[in-house]
């Protein structure tokens, strides 16, 4: 497939569990993969794609049950963090990606943490709004503030959609129609099954993965994120934390890259510069 820096390619890649919709800016530069959060879509990374294209081969995809990707053929298997991670890896393998830096937001960050154990071709990971938690409901609860109930709710009312968008993107952030449409489009089972798997005793110990990571791990959060427990995230014993600090961006919430790209993008660019 011919690729140029001027054109963003959209295509569909068939994986074991779903047909996956992909944006690819092409070129031979270092691939950077952007993984969206629960009930969102790849277009949420517009400000990052526009800034990075031409310097990097930027890839973004819709997870199974989200955006323009199909719903999962085997929902119980696909709609879990390991299931999502294996689907993402399958896409990267089919694209012939031999090394990649990943930015994962919220659920996307949890998928990135899973990839630490599964995909040695990932050479750097940045996470946002993603507490790395140990196994079991009590340990998961340590990483979050009370009140993430909608994250695992299958059926959304109109009020749920409105509240989810406001809490997730920030009350003062631009609520463009595509963000609302992405929530409405999401397969409700993707929320329910992902959340059940996350709380189950069979889940992955992401705290261990984050603390022991040999891959540089960058953590950038909005200081007003309503979902995450900042003390917990700061208190972990990271072996390879980028810049040896957790970044908290003032005045922004759960999606700082969307709400305030002028604050977020310079940090992402600096992280990626280390790989050029």
From TrEMBL:
Residues 32-265 form the AB hydrolase-1 domain. It comes from the Bacteria. Pfam families: Abhydrolase_6. This is Epoxide hydrolase. Keywords: Hydrolase. Signal peptide: none annotated. GO terms for molecular function: hydrolase activity.
């Amino acid at each position: 497939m011919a690729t140029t820096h001027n054109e963003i390619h959209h295509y569909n890649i068939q994986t074991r569990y779903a047909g996956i919709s992909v944006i690819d800016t092409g070129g031979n530069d270092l691939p950077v993969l952007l993984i969206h959060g629960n009930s969102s879509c790849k277009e949420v990374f517009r400000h990052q794609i526009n800034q990075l294209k031409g310097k990097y081969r930027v890839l973004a995809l819709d997870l199974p049950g989200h955006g323009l990707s199909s719903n999962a053929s085997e929902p119980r298997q696909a709609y879990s963090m390991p299931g999502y991670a294996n689907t993402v890896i399958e896409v990267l393998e089919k694209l012939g990606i031999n090394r990649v830096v990943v930015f994962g937001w919220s659920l996307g960050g949890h998928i990135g943490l899973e990839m630490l154990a599964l995909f040695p071709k990932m050479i750097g990971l940045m996470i946002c709004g993603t507490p790395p938690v140990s196994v079991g409901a009590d340990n998961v609860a340590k990483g979050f503030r009370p009140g993430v109930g909608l994250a695992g709710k299958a059926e959304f009312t109109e009020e749920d959609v409105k509240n989810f968008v406001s809490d997730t993107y920030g009350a003062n952030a631009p609520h463009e129609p595509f963000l609302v449409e992405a929530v409405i489009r999401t397969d409700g089972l993707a929320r329910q099954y992902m959340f059940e798997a996350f709380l189950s005793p069979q889940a992955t110990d992401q705290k261990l993965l984050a603390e022991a990571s040999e891959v540089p791990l960058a953590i950038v959060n909005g200081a007003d994120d309503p979902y995450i427990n900042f003390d917990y995230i700061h208190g972990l014993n990271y072996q390879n934390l980028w810049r040896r600090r957790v970044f908290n961006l003032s005045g922004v919430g759960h999606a700082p890259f969307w709400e305030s790209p002028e604050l977020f993008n310079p940090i992402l660019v600096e992280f990626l510069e280390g790989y050029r």
